[in-house]
Amino acid sequence: MIEKIDKCLREKLSIIHLEITDNSSQHSGHKGKTSGGGHFSALIVSDDFIDLPLIHRHRLVYNTLGNLMDGAIHAFSMKTLTLKEYNKI
């Protein structure tokens, strides 16, 4: 699944740096309804985020992931940075 997420993001965004982590094992057996999809976190560095507020950056990523968010991915947390922001950390 990490490869699918990686490919999807790289096809539609100008990725400078990308780290994706599968956190699904930390959530196995948790209560509540789930779609059965995996839990992932990502650090995404792209200058596509320049001048975008955080909510718009996240919306851009969710829209980019498209159908994966309908089942293959149950939870996706992200840190979205421009190259300038990334170089400051």
What gap, in angstroms, lies between the N and C termini? 28 Å
* CATH architectural name: 2-Layer Sandwich
How would the global form be characterised?
globular
- What structural class should be given to the helix and strand makeup? alpha+beta
> Can you say what the CATH homologous superfamily is?
BolA-like
* Helix and strand sequence: HEEHEH
Strand order of the largest sheet: 1-2-3
Please give the share of residues in helix.
Answer: 25-40%
What is the level 1 CATH name? Alpha Beta
Radius of gyration: 13 Å
User: How many domain units?
Assistant: 1
What does this structure look like?
This protein is α+β, with helices and mostly antiparallel strands and 89 residues long. The chain has one domain: BolA-like (GMP Synthetase, Chain A, domain 3, 2-Layer Sandwich). Helix content is 33%, strand content 29%. It contains three helices and three strands, in the order αββαβα. The chain has helices at 2-12, 54-65, 83-88; strands at 15-22, 38-46, 73-81. Strands 1-2-3 form a three-stranded mixed sheet. α2 links the parallel β2 (38-46) and β3 (73-81). The mean pLDDT is 91.
SSE layout and pairing:
Layout: H1 2-12, E1 15-22, E2 38-46, H2 54-65, E3 73-81, H3 83-88
Parallel strand pairs: 2-3
Antiparallel strand pairs: 1-2
Please tag this protein with its features.
single chain; 89 residues; alpha+beta; GMP Synthetase, Chain A, domain 3; three-stranded mixed β-sheet; 3 strands
Gist?
The protein contains three helices and three strands, in the order αββαβα.
